[in-house]
Fold these 4 entries.
Entry 1:
Amino acid sequence: MSAIVFGLATAVLWATTLLASARASRLLGPWSTLAWVMLIGLVVTLPFVVASAPSVAMSQQDVVLMATAGVANSAGLLCNYAAVRRGKVAVVGPIISTEGAIAAVLAVIAGDPLSAAAAAVLLLIAVGVVLASIDQSAGDPELAVDLAADTASAGSSGATAAVITLALGAALLFGVNLFVTSRIAGVLPLAWTVLPARLAGVVFVTVPLVALGRLRIERAAAPFVVIVGICEVLGIATFALGAKVSAPVTSVIASQFAGIAAIAAYVLFGERLGRLQVAGVVIIAIGVATLAATHAV
């Protein structure tokens, strides 16, 4: 049950980062957005890292896992920000949400237990995630009007090959990061599972941009990068907590963030949900309720 709770918390946090990062990256560009997000995340994380340092004893394998997680997460976020800057959130979101399925497959291959019943329900939830995030504006003039502002700011009338490629790259990198993070979470304090990406991002992105005088910030973008920086840290933390119980379940439920982002866009920005999106939300709700009621995990 705790894997479901932490998975849902992660989904809400990642939906928040998806929406806020789209705004930030369109104002600052993906590189400056990533630089600020990683710097803010590192500032938030460091006190907890220092406090838990005396109890940490890392092996060489732990160091390799942390480095892998850091590089994969940072590179994935860069691809993510570049994608939402050029394309629609409703298109990029569902592609990136496959990260959970990728991580779940990796976890099962590595030996994590998963019953047939749980696998079937998780597949149902994954289908719901995709349906809830489908962009139907191309075939519905009214929906197209609702999404016109986002389309104009993104500079594209739809998903281009470049946007799809960037989103797929982000999904693969995030899947690797989630899988590796689930392994780190089992042997290191929670704060240390959040540290790798923040540290890698600051060292390889923030510091070079500052040195080159290319780190940008605008007043309008500041609240968004702060929100993304904090929610990224909290999202990885809740995922790590859930992964200690069940990595496959936490991974797939966390991927609901794409559907949640679609609902939030409707509430906050007045974007309408199409019939397929409504069906997806219903399927997700049924799937989560079934997991909770049957204790499939």
Entry 2:
Amino acid sequence: MPIPERNPSSEYPMFEFTLHRRRIVKFLSVTAGFLILMHGILATWNYGYEEINWYLLQLFDVNEEHNLPTWFSGFNLLVATLFLGIITMQKRKLGDDMARRWTVLFAGFCFLSIDEIAGLHETVNSVIDPSWAWGGLVIVILVGLYFIPFLRSLPRRTLIHFVLAGAVFVGGAVIMELVGQPLDSDELAYNLTTMVEEGMEMFGVVLFTRALLAYMMAGNDSATVSLRS
């Protein structure tokens, strides 16, 4: 889907900026990789050798809240939400048959971004006996069924990338959550499991953002976006 270009005849001032797909994906990937690596190194040293400073451990602990990984995860989801919003507005403007499903997808990512910062699912998990992941698995199946027509409407390359990104994200958020549930949080095995879990979530979103950008730019590496004030 081409990004709307500037209309020189418009009487309203416009702001232009250029999106570079590879630069955006590289920044998100390198940042995610650094945070996951730091968690792995610090957790291995703390639980495998000797205790390290609590503040340093907490700062990079992907299983904690209000730290660098939490900030990045929320930001990562927000970036994907922004590009989803651009596509959704264009689809609604064009009266696309799938505009409603694009809107639902946009709203879903808005919720995920809020949840990442506010920790809504952690709150639910603290007041119920079964893990929230079981309910999440049911929701994933229902959402998947709802989006089948949407996925079929996409170009084949975009379809494959969307499904791959979703599989990586859900594998981390739900499957790895269930794998780590019976483990002791003070053991190295648990902390390495959460590293894999959060890493899959982060990179699943990065893959999705990459697919969105490729879809928006029709396969090009960069595109200029114009915004009317």
Entry 3:
Amino acid sequence: MTLFPIINQKTNLELLHNIVKKKRVANAYLFYGEDGSGTEAVALEFAAILNCTAPEQRPCGQCPACKAMRGLEHPNLTLVFPIPIPKSSRSEDSPFKQLKEDELTEIHTAVRNKAANPYYKISIRRGLHIPINFIREINRSIYLTSATSGQKVVIIFDAHLMSEDAANAFLKILEEPPSFSTFILTTANPEQLLATIRSRCQALFFPPIPFAELEVHLKSKAATPYDARLATYLASGNLLLAEQLLENNLTEIKTYVSQTFAALANGDVKTVYQLTNDLSQIGRTESDYLKQILRGLVFWIRDMSLMRHGSDDGKLIFNEICYYFEGIDPKISIIELCSNEAVRRELC
């Protein structure tokens, strides 16, 4: 069993279990892979394995250590992530000393969300970097004897966002790491870390979640089979993004794609121009959302090509839209589909 709900990554989990079983835990690890692949979720799981008090089958999920770790409240666990850096902040101050009340509230809420969903991305407004005082705070506490048995674990989310001073300060800790402590750095951009930091970490690559497994997971969240498939492909295997699409943008993307190709098929230049202008506006403020819409347009073209050549329906991504119009043969081209009067009234 796992303490946190983790999808796939069986190979990395087995490796980490074997490391603990053979008592060969290193001082520092680098978990790298695309956002949503599970680097952060497995980092939390590893921290639970290292601190569970059960004689075997760790984490047990029942001992006080596991329960505290599940809520991200274990005294041996420290989470580090980008936070706002007040102008008046000094490098020797506590990282949270000069933060405003609303910023502290946002951080507390983000950590609670992370406990509820290990794939949740902690992203604090104006938190562009991990400041040096965050690392110095770790340096002050990591060498102290813990009042609790187990392993001190420091997880640095988005480790590539450490400021230059913070990265250099962290490197000094790695050069003389304290006993009974483990640092886990997670990142989607390992090349942006100092080479000297990377060289002192044992690296584990986290591949994207296989589309089939992500699709099954989304269906378990009460998503329709059609929406689960579309969200899976639009998110390119990123679990967090797929869940966000289901909650927020999927219907909008489907509508945009349908309207775009209906307008193209009918030679509606005015609508095409308006939709293109909308895309331009979206790209200025929401580049990731723009990418998802563009993927949707590409997937629609792909589906229409497959349908025209008699492809099996199971290979379609926009499967739902293919059967959206009652009485319309799904195995026709997009031009033929959108030339139908009933379809044109619905889409345009």
Entry 4:
Amino acid sequence: MRKVFKSGFAFFIMSTYDVLGNIAIVKFKRGAKKNEKVGFAKKILGDYKSVKTVLEKSRKFHGRLRTLSTKYVLGEKTKEALYRENGCEFRFNVETCYFSPRLANERLQIAKMVGEGESVLVLFAGVAPFSIVIAKTGKPSKVVSVELGKECSKYALENVKRNKVNVEVVQGDVRRVLPRMKEKFDRIVMARPNLKDDFLDVSFPKCKKGGMIHYYGFYDEDKLDELRELIYHEAQKAGRKVKILAVSKAGDVGIRKYRYRADIKILN
């Protein structure tokens, strides 16, 4: 959401901001002064009844756990959000737990694809938004939610109880957890962050014949062939025959760079 804020005789165009329930996180234009930030924060508090705290995004998401650094601007001094979407409720710390409200529609789309009685594995699950929306919206027989971060896993357990759904939360590294799993799943959601490791080599063996994998990758829009080549190459190495049914944009992450979702059918 791009906003224009008037202060004195000047206009200051603010960068995008996200509203996560009671917290708004703003990335201010470089050079914005403190009084300008406070003024814009007051406007947000006035525009959104649910927002009680305004934070400034002081550093991009970083590290394997995609943590965030923020600075307090105005309102209640808290970094714990209570966010609602798709009939579900999620509590989490905005700095220690990666969460994108911009993926709300994406989560619902995936949930609607899940057939009755399916077993679903969600990797890089965070505080369990994909897992819980799937469990709440569809009628899966089982949902397993795997997340590396201990803090995120703690909130995931709380959110599972809060939403009264049947989701098994597993805390651990995908590379270590998956090889120990004996069962295979009808559907795997790979909601991976922007990392070099694609994790397809450990994911392909855990999907049933006829099952689906939803793989998320980050690419420039003119380099989608690299995504397709990667998937077919890793499938061949894993001894799986696959078909990419569709590749869809699932949000922008930069100038002409997007998060893409590849829907992969497992044929053998």
